[in-house]
Write a structure and sequence with these properties.
alpha/beta, 4-stranded mixed β-sheet, 16 helices, 46% helix, 15% strand, globular
């Protein structure tokens, strides 16, 4: 039986992970769960799965949950997250907390010698150099949970790295793939949150609408699969059936396909290197008989182009971009700036950043804080 800790158990990935754990109850035991502040759901999860440790980042909410669960161990703050991430009874840690908050616990889990199922793409975007160095030192399995990276991971199984010619990440294109520039001037929060394929949290959903989510995945793929930026392409595939592809030096390609859901990559990370019976019916080819592909418009969706630029520049720019984007997305969700202004403001901020090398976690956290401060007080400029 595999023992797992879930960082971000109340989010979309966390809830799906628990669904898989429920399905594979003879093979999976949940020993620790953690979240930012949703203690109502944490309480319900605790009562169902009986973990040894519950961690709540919000101190006041942790205190309230402890009163509700007097017989349970409830830990608070970042220290609580780090304790859950390094819990001795856990074999595998699912890192599913969105944003840079998930970086430190991910590092702590690796330091503790835990295998990590990674759904927090910001951890690699901000701290890829540090994380991959630790992964090699500790000789742990870093298992990607994003459907695209899980697809690539599966396609590369048994292949030699030098045979890889190109990695191709697929993108649904988001809700505004066919919109005109005039339509994009009036995007509402409700429209941006209405993703055509995936059900995700608000931050990831907005990132998907701007294609920043795909840009972050490009940077993540760079660190996970040890390829150059020039070897990573993005193709728009609205049906989201092919989750990503690998093209090899002999011209052949391998693709991983399934219905668009997160259960399959999550279950693969939990059972790796084995597979187990899944939750879905056999794939219906007649229902999914049409597969389309388009070139992404990097001019309209400038966040994707900015991510490529950040990756090629390196240093602290990806970290800065990631943190600034988080704040700009929050400002959009609050109605403080337009959808188009997310990319415009981000480009302006990135152009002003003095890039330095990433040499420590302290550097990452300092740059992250600086980016958030500058993005929060940046004055809006016209989208025209």
């Amino acid at each position: 039986m595999k023992h797992i800790a879930i960082l971000g158990s109340t989010g979309s990935i966390g809830k799906n992970t628990l669904q898989v754990a429920r399905h594979l109850k003879e093979r999976i035991k949940v020993v620790a769960i953690a979240a930012r502040e949703n203690i109502d759901l944490l309480e319900a999860q605790s009562k169902e799965f009986c973990p040894d440790i519950i961690a709540v980042f919000n101190n006041a909410k942790a205190y309230e949950l402890q009163k509700r669960l007097p017989g349970k161990t409830v830990l608070a703050g970042m220290e609580g997250l780090l304790t859950a991430a390094s819990y001795s009874e856990a074999d595998l840690v699912i890192s599913a907390m969105t944003g840079t908050m998930g970086l430190q616990p991910t590092i702590e889990a690796i330091k503790a010698g835990k295998d990590v199922g990674l759904a927090n793409k910001e951890a690699l975007v901000s701290g890829g150099a540090i994380i991959m160095k630790l992964v090699k030192e500790k000789n742990i399995n870093l298992l990607p949970i994003d459907s695209e990276h899980s697809a690539i991971f599966q396609c590369l199984n048994g292949e030699t790295p030098k045979s890889v010619q190109r990695i191709i990440l697929t993108s649904s294109g988001g809700p505004f793939r066919t919109w005109t520039q005039e339509q994009l001037e009036t995007v509402t929060v409700e429209q941006a949150l209405n993703h055509p394929t995936w059900s995700m949290g608000p931050k990831v959903t907005i990132d998907s609408s701007t294609l920043m989510n795909k840009g972050l995945e490009v940077i993540e793929a760079f660190w996970l699969f040890d390829v150059s930026p020039e070897q990573i392409d993005v193709i728009v595939h609205p049906q989201s059936i092919i989750h990503s592809l690998v093209e090899f030096c002999d011209g052949s390609m391998l693709a991983q396909m399934s219905e668009p859901n997160m259960i399959v990559p999550i279950q693969y990370s939990l059972t790796y290197p084995d597979r187990a019976p899944g939750l879905f019916k056999p794939f219906d080819f007649m229902k999914n008989s049409k597969l389309e592909f388009f070139e992404p418009n990097k001019k309209t969706f400038r966040c994707l182009a900015l991510a490529y630029e950040a990756l090629k520049c390196g240093g602290t720019l990806p970290c800065y971009m990631n943190a600034a984007n988080e704040v700009l997305v929050e400002r959009f969700l609050k109605g403080e700036l337009s959808w188009k202004n997310i990319g415009i403001q981000l480009e302006k901020l990135m152009n002003q950043h003095a890039v330095i090398s990433v040499d420590s976690l302290e550097t990452i956290l300092a740059v992250d804080a600086l980016a958030r401060e500058e993005a929060a007080r940046s004055k809006l400029i016209s989208t025209k």
